[in-house]
Design goal:
Homotrimer. The protein is mostly beta strands. It contains 3 helices and 12 strands, in the order βββββαββββββαβα.
């Protein structure tokens, strides 16, 4: 489990294309500290498994399902990525519960800078709209953010200078894709209420 608090802005150093997958080599001096084979690291919000680790770099395999559901397929050598290690038991939950299981992708639609923050408008797939509410939580490229405005096909978030400086959202422009993970609690509530309604119908 992750928290959506990005630890560092890493870099893709190599991409190896396979038949139905690809292998990334990534540089991340912070997240590779103590890393070992089989560990999990979130890359732009996608939970990946460390295949091997040498120095400040690690490799991870990405299967076709992940490439199709997320924006990782658009990454290339030199791309910057948000990196986060799983939360250790007993540590503070600084963001919200993030699984690293991307629900879909959105697109940066608009950026409105101001003196102390920036409003970013992001498109929202129709099947995710019901999970996004004003002042609720959403994960964008692995970043835990609060929804400012929730529209029928978009939402907005307000980014502070720290987020702009230390994550991919400081660099992405209109037209760029982002990974989205909605609040898992909302999905569980929907499932439980649906099961209850079906039970009442019987």
């Amino acid at each position: 489990m992750f928290t959506g608090i990005v630890e560092e802005l890493g870099e893709i150093t190599a991409v190896e294309t396979l038949d139905d997958a690809c292998r990334f080599r990534l540089r991340g001096p912070v997240v590779t500290q103590g890393a070992k084979h089989g560990d999990s690291i979130a890359v732009n919000g996608v939970c990946l498994t460390v295949v091997d680790h040498e120095g400040d770099e690690f490799t991870a395999d990405v299967m076709a399902e992940t490439l199709n559901r997320s924006s990782l397929g658009a990454l290339k050598a030199g791309s910057r990525v948000n990196l986060e290690r799983p939360m250790a038991v007993g540590e503070r939950l600084g963001g919200h519960i993030v699984q690293g299981h991307v629900d879909g992708t959105g697109e940066i639609l608009e950026r409105k800078p101001s003196e102390h923050w920036e409003i970013v408008k992001i498109s929202l797939p129709a099947d995710l709209t019901r999970y996004v509410v004003e002042k609720g939580s959403i994960t964008v490229d692995g970043i835990s953010l609060t929804v400012v405005d929730a529209g029928p096909d978009h939402f907005t978030v307000s980014l502070i200078p720290t987020t702009l400086d230390l994550t991919t959202l400081g660099h992405k422009q209109p037209g760029d894709p982002v990974n989205l993970e909605v609040d898992v609690i909302a999905k569980y509530v929907e499932r439980m209420l649906g099961d209850r309604a079906q039970g009442a119908g019987r």
